[in-house]
Design a protein that fits this description.
299 residues, alpha/beta, 10 helices
Length: 299
């Protein structure tokens, strides 16, 4: 392994949460506004329950109001849409997040489209997608925004002209990540599992963002010497060395190999993951400002 710098997402997220808490305190003292994040959880998915609980804890630690609506897995789609409509109309609610995945009988796209774009703190609404791609002020998906923040800090804000490759084309990470990098004047390519000569395409990139959802797919010799690697993947794989039935988390990048070529790299866990909720808190503050005609803070 080389001397590749480890980009510490956990520490970065802690600093971002501190800045968010400071802006929340300012909103409360100067304007009497306490940002509110409302999360809707449908069903009993264990991973979703843990994630929602963590969101609630961190929201309250930042000085904001956290509300969670827990609905049975059998909840009709119409009832969920009615709840969203009531939250859209509630001026005390600044951010709405519907935890995914949803039960099979509920149309995810219809639910996401029902959220007021100005309260869409996940940044998934088609209007926010359009605003992002056309360079307008938008609520941006949290994970790619967290990746961008870490890249900008690493490069001292100077991303212009860098060749970036985003490995992955999802609406949640890949596509918005490409839009964010393009807005920073990077030369951006989007690749995926069916891209021809994929290793060679990766080796051309100064910035490689892996978000393809395949454990350790990106090997060390795919990484350009000196490149910065952002690994968005979170994959659970067997870990027999820990005992029978044990598992461990790995990214989409073979960390040990890639660190031999990269100048900087995010680990898994402890890299991109902690930034997601921190950016969700940031988006909630921005949304609260937007809805009240207040200039959004630069956080």
């Amino acid at each position: 392994m080389s001397d590749a710098k480890i980009i510490d997402g956990k520490a970065f997220a802690a600093k971002l949460r501190e800045r968010v808490a400071g802006e929340v305190a300012r909103l409360v003292s100067d304007h009497g506004i306490k940002p509110n994040l409302t999360v809707i959880l449908v069903g009993e998915d264990p991973a979703s329950q843990v994630y929602v609980r963590n969101k609630g804890t961190q929201t309250e630690e930042a000085g904001m109001t956290s509300v969670t609506h827990k609905l049975d897995a059998s909840t009709p789609e119409a009832a969920l849409l009615e709840l969203i409509e009531s939250l859209n109309d509630d001026p005390a609610c600044h951010g709405i997040l519907v935890q995914l995945p949803l039960p099979d009988h509920i149309d995810e796209s219809k639910v996401l489209a029902a959220i007021d774009p100005d309260k869409d703190v996940d940044g998934f609404h088609v209007i926010n997608v359009g605003r992002l791609w056309t360079g307008q002020s938008a609520l941006v998906p949290c994970t790619p925004y967290g990746c961008l923040m870490m890249l900008k800090e690493h490069f001292g804000g100077k991303l212009s002209g860098k060749r970036a490759l985003v490995l992955g084309r999802s609406n949640i990470v890949g596509k918005p990540m490409a839009a964010l990098l393009l807005a920073e004047s990077c030369t951006v390519s989007i690749a995926h599992s069916r891209t021809e000569d994929l290793p060679e395409r990766c080796r051309e990139a100064d910035i490689l963002v892996a978000a393809v959802g395949r454990p350790e797919m990106v090997r060390g010799d795919w990484v350009k010497p000196g490149a910065v690697v952002i690994d968005v993947g979170i994959n659970r794989v067997p870990a027999p060395e820990k005992g029978e039935g044990k598992t461990r988390l790995v990214g989409d990048v073979n960390f040990a190999e890639a660190a031999g070529n990269a100048s900087a790299i995010t680990p898994v866990p402890g890299g991109v993951g902690p930034m997601t909720i921190a950016c969700l808190l940031r988006n909630t503050v921005v949304a609260a400002c937007m809805q009240n005609g207040i200039d959004a803070p630069d956080i």
